[in-house]
């Protein structure tokens, strides 16, 4: 039960991480997996890629397919809508942090 609750909670944090990094520079899945693992998130590719696809579908990210040595790599960048969501999430996260600190 605890794991399910934490997983749902961390999903939002993961999406904020994705938006943050996609604002800094284009990201791709395997790099994002490594970045999330560095922050202690236990997430698999089978979990991350649907998140990226849903964020694209929700118009938070734009995808560009780039041919890298004959292999297509999907790069994601933040959209204007994604940037607005990120700004609001940052404000809410900061308020929460101040309260629970």
From TrEMBL:
InterPro entries: Metal_resp_DNA-bind_regulator, Tscrpt_reg_PadR_N, WH-like_DNA-bd_sf, WH_DNA-bd_sf
Domain Transcription regulator PadR N-terminal: 18-88
Protein name (Swiss-Prot/TrEMBL): Lineage-specific thermal regulator protein
Organism: Virgibacillus massiliensis
